[in-house]
Every structure is written in structure tokens, then in C-alpha cells.
Design goal:
The chain is of the alpha+beta class and about 375 residues long. It has two domains: about 25-275, DD-peptidase/beta-lactamase superfamily (Beta-lactamase, 3-Layer(aba) Sandwich); about 335-375. Helix content is about 50%, strand content about 15%. It has 15 helices and nine strands. It has a five-stranded antiparallel sheet with strand order 2-1-9-8-7, sandwiched between helices. A two-stranded antiparallel ribbon has the order 3-4. Strand 1 and strand 2 form a beta hairpin. Helix 4 (about 110-120) runs antiparallel to helix 5 and helix 5 (about 120-135) crosses helix 6 (about 135-150). The longest helix is centred in the last third of the chain and has 35 residues, at about 340-375. It starts with a helix and ends with a helix.
């Protein structure tokens, strides 16, 4: 009992010191939100904005910058999807949303990317960051470098996961407008949408089932990304995108006090975006019909490719029934006239007629001379 009392006393004395060591964090969340922005992903045109340059805490929306850095490294050939990542003790100790990594485990890069985007796993974020640059600090420097290159002038990242700052650490800062720049770049990459658009996925041989925190994936038609984020001082935030009628809209809702309000506003603003951008006509790839002129012979491979790319000429070889009936009504000579043999037959026919005429005239002349002799 005495030992328990001493432990409780120690914790009471320690709490004020710990609170004093943590940097004070102003609560930014508001009702319905701190800021919002809607853009056309293709043109980058702003369709709606409200306090889009207000500074906010991104929370786990920050992990979109992790994804951008990782995909950039893969594109450069400096990282492979099947590359194995060894879990570090530091990664295993990160709290919040996680997939409960153990230092004895290792996973392919792609599996940890899914954990990062679907489960919003903070331990996966630390494991990937450490694997790629050797330390969290090195990866944070890379995040800020990429942000500056993209033109995210009002963003400063101080963590790889977006959790509230620990003792002596500054909070992550960004704006809705800066995040829209990042989201527009990610929207250009189908692989990014593959990860952010996944609703559920198994991890650790399906022993752990991950569920995406972005509920718009199932509630808003065409939604395939991006990411949600939350902690108390930051409020509820979301970067969302959807595609419909050949148009992609990106919406940011930052710092809402309520998750349901955030989601409702994001859906409302996505709908608003689609009403402001007319649907784009579907891009057709069918080739225009070609005139019936002799074509040079092709190799087998080239012919196969051409047939696949131009289905219309191949379909034209099967004549409709009505055309077949009309063709059967034609005379054999008319049918043959379409070929070289037809021309030969016509020539023979004309020669035969001329010869017959010649013999008839000769016979008439012969009879006429015979009559004259008899007289």
C-alpha cells in the first residue's frame, strides 16, 4: 500500500513538469471549419475558398506528403515496392493509430504504404521514414524540401506522422491552399489514388484488417482519395477528391470541430465543384474509316497490333444479310467484272461478237455473188 501511495505521489509531482515541458498548443478548430477550398484538379482553378490561407495543423493529412516523397523515390529508382523494411524499436513505440509493428518484423515497402494510407499507421510512417533516409529528421528535411519545390510556401513539417508535438517540438503547420497543391500533384499519379482509394485491406497476412478513415469513399460517388486527420487542437480535417463526367474535383476542409460536420461539408463542396465545371467529353481512341485502297503488307506482329487498334475494318468483312441477297441477284458477269478475269471474259465476248458479225457479213456477200452467177 505504501509503495502504491509513493507511485501516485510521484506521478502527481511529475505531471506539472511534463506539461510545462510540452510547448503550448492553441486550439484551432471551429464550427463548421477553419478553412475550406475547392479546385478543379485538371486546371488548378479555384472554384470556392474560405480562409484558404489560414494556418492549420494538418494532423494525419500530413501523411500525404509522406506518400508524395515515397512515390517520388520509387519513380527515381531509389526505392522499390518489394524492398523489405526492418521495423525499428522507435517505430514500434509510436502511439495513436497503428498496425502494432514489432522490431522482430519486416515488411515490403508497399505493405507499409497501405498501412500508412488506409490505417493511417503512425508506426508505419516512422518505419518507412527511417528506412528511406536513416532517421525521422532526415525524412522531415526531405518533406520540407519537396514542399518548397511544389510551392507550398506556408507549410512547415516537424514530424513524419502528424501527431501533436512532443516536448520541445513545434507543431506541423500548413494551409488548405498548400495542401491543394500537394493533392493536385498526387491526383496525377494513378498509384497514389490506388492507395488512398482502398477502403479495407488485410495486414500481416490478413490477421489485422485495416479500415480507411475516409468515409466519403463509400458515401460519395466517384470518391477515391485522399486522407483524413484529427487530434483535439487541430480538429477534424480532410483532403478529398472525386471524379465524375471526366472532371476531377479536389476539396479541403480543415479544422472542423465535428467529424460528421467535416464529412458533410466536404461532400457538399465536392458537389458544388461538379456543378461549376461542365462534364468533359469522353476521349475516343477509335480511328477514322480509311478509304479502300491497297495497303502494303505487314508483318504478323504489326498486323495483330493494327487489328486490335482498329476494330471497325475487321468488322466490315462480315457483310450484312441484305447485302448478300443483293449480291446474289447480280449476274455472274457483273460479279466477275470486279476482277482481272472479268475484264478478260469481257474481251473474249466482244471478240466473239465481232467474229460472228464478220462471218454473217461474209456469208451474205457469198450468197449475193452466187445469185449473180446464176443469173
Amino acid at each position: 500500500m505504501k509503495r502504491l501511495t509513493l507511485c501516485l505521489l510521484f506521478l502527481v509531482l511529475l505531471a506539472p513538469a511534463a506539461m510545462a515541458a510540452r510547448a503550448p498548443l492553441n486550439v484551432l478548430s471551429r464550427d463548421p471549419y477553419v478553412s475550406a477550398l475547392v479546385i478543379d484538379a485538371d486546371s488548378g482553378k479555384t472554384l470556392f475558398e474560405e480562409n484558404a490561407d489560414a494556418k492549420v495543423y494538418p494532423a494525419s493529412v500530413l501523411k500525404l506528403m509522406n506518400l508524395y516523397v515515397i512515390l517520388d523515390r520509387i519513380e527515381q529508382g531509389a526505392l522499390k515496392l518489394d524492398e523489405m523494411v526492418q521495423v525499428t524499436p522507435e517505430a514500434s513505440k509510436i502511439g495513436g493509430s497503428q498496425v502494432y509493428l514489432d522490431p522482430k518484423e519486416q515488411f515490403p515497402v508497399e505493405e507499409l504504404i497501405y498501412a500508412l494510407m488506409v490505417q493511417s499507421a503512425n508506426d508505419a510512417a516512422v518505419a518507412l521514414a527511417t528506412h528511406i533516409t536513416g532517421s525521422k529528421e532526415g525524412f522531415i528535411a526531405l518533406m520540407n524540401q519537396k514542399a518548397q519545390e511544389l510551392g507550398m510556401k506556408n507549410s512547415q513539417f516537424n514530424s513524419v506522422h502528424g501527431l501533436p508535438p512532443s516536448a520541445g517540438q513545434q507543431p506541423d503547420i500548413t494551409t488548405a491552399r498548400d495542401l491543394a497543391i500537394l493533392c493536385r500533384e498526387l491526383a496525377k499519379r494513378p498509384e497514389a489514388l490506388k492507395y488512398t482509394g482502398t477502403q479495407t485491406r488485410g495486414f500481416r497476412e490478413d490477421k489485422f484488417i485495416m479500415h480507411n478513415h475516409n468515409k466519403l469513399l463509400t458515401r460519395f460517388p466517384g470518391c477515391d482519395g485522399f486522407k483524413t486527420g484529427y487530434y483535439e487542437a487541430a480538429g477534424f480535417s480532410i483532403a478529398a477528391t472525386a471524379r465524375k463526367g471526366g472532371v476531377r474535383i479536389i476539396t479541403l476542409v480543415m479544422g472542423s470541430k465535428d467529424r460528421k460536420v467535416r464529412d458533410a461539408k466536404a461532400a457538399e463542396l465536392l458537389s458544388k465543384g461538379f456543378t461549376l465545371v461542365p462534364p468533359q467529353p469522353a476521349v475516343t481512341t477509335a480511328a477514322a474509316p480509311k478509304p479502300a485502297t491497297p495497303q502494303p503488307q505487314q508483318t504478323t506482329t504489326a498486323a495483330a497490333v493494327d487489328t486490335a487498334a482498329q476494330p471497325a475494318p475487321a468488322a466490315a468483312t462480315a457483310a450484312p444479310v441484305t447485302d448478300a441477297r443483293q449480291e446474289s441477284a447480280l449476274s455472274p458477269l457483273a460479279k466477275a467484272g470486279d476482277s482481272g478475269w472479268g475484264q478478260i471474259l469481257i474481251g473474249i465476248g466482244i471478240g466473239f461478237v465481232l467474229c460472228l458479225g464478220f462471218f454473217i457479213v461474209a456469208e451474205i456477200l457469198r450468197k449475193s455473188r452466187t445469185k449473180h452467177k446464176i443469173r
